[in-house]
Amino acid sequence: MTSRHDAIVLGAGIVGISTAINLRKRGLSVALIDRREPGEETSFGNAGIIQREGVHPYLFPRDLRTIVEVALRRRTEANFHWSSLTSTAPFLWRYFRASTSIGGRRTFEANIQLFARCLSAHETLMEEAGSADLVAKRGWIRIFRDDGAMAAAQSQLDDLAELGLDAGYVDLKELGALEPHIETGRLAGGIHYRDPWTSSDPGALVKSYAELFTSFGGETIKADVSGMSRRDSGWAVTGEAGEFQADQMAVTLGPWSKSLLDTVGIRLPMGIKRGYHRHYRPTGNAYLSRPLVDDENGFVLAPMAKGIRLTSGAEFARHGAPKTPIQLERALPLARDLLPIGDSVEDEPWMGARPVFPDMLPVVGPAPGCPGLWLNFGHGHHGFTLGPATGELLAQMMTGEAPFCDPAPYRAERFG
Hints:
Pfam families: DAO. Residues 6-397 form the FAD dependent oxidoreductase domain. The protein is an alpha/beta fold. The protein has a domain at 1-59 and 99-135 and 197-270 and 357-416: FAD/NAD(P)-binding domain, CATH 3.50.50. The protein is built from eleven helices and 22 strands. It has helices at residues 14-25, 64-71, 85-98, 101-129, 147-152, 154-162, 172-178, 202-215, 257-262, 326-338, 383-398, and strands spanning 2-10, 30-34, 49-50, 78-80, 135-136, 140-144, 167-170, 189-193, 197-199, 219-222, 225-231, 234-239, 242-251, 271-282, 292-294, 299-304, 307-311, 314-316, 341-344, 350-356, 363-366, 373-377. Helix 1 packs parallel to helix 8 (202-215), helix 1 (14-25) runs parallel beside helix 11 (383-398) and helix 4 (101-129) packs across helix 8. The longest helix has 29 residues, at 101-129. The protein is globular.
């Protein structure tokens, strides 16, 4: 079977769905293709925060002690597979080199225009999809266990204040009033980021966007793509269901994007940050109103429809390497010191992979040297936050519309 469309979007996560919706709104016939149902990979397993304040990048640590402890697998916030060294080392070296104060500031400045769009882009979709009830507007809290770490966050607060964002320190009394069931005895205080929104079921929110795409006349196809090639003036992908052709094609496959693009000679320095989550039942009448983020120990506690979601920090390993949820095991006692949580809901933790580039910016724009082929992936920790914004940006570029911001910082050509 062969079918043809104006545009094909490969990948039905938050980024691909948002891209497909925005193309359909601009009048194109669009096929959204994925091997799984929409929203069941990386888009499913995040902390559910639409991080309006998330303009500061997650830089690679540059102090030797932290690097050694991560390499020896002694830290909670990061894990490393020595068996994956040959595949992860090139990316890690580029990530390290990019994580200077100058590089971090460059990424921060490039992030401003995308993050400024994240709430309004989500709001448009959730209102149209009728799923605004899945989102709360209470922000999130970053907790600190010592005064020194709390004081060190001041420069970031200054940056946010200059951008007009609402964030500020809360003492233990204020923290207890915001979240009455957390144990504050071992804490020094926190920061309440008030602008971000949070979802109690990010997977369901993404699926509601996929249903919106279908309601607009878009076609969702479940197929495992095995190859991609040029066809006349356009592109084609093949799978078990046949061949699908289009004038334009957008690759939004997240962590699977690189392997597919390698087959057509587009080689980009993308890496993988794996992550885990597991849900736990609160004990007694305990609850959380908003996510708690413990940066020092690299975990998040987030209120979800299934219970309290405990998420891990980053794990650097081959995409297909066996699961090693050691970070969740280390974080769980620390999480229970903060909030009374009991048994887990699932039999085993969920694992996903975040696609990331060394400069912590996504690639959004045309594929170099391949007319009609477009790229939108590599959002790192912020795919859930930025998917609707970069989906809109790419659709504008694909249809010749003036983009809402300067796309130059996100072009693939920045890697040479």
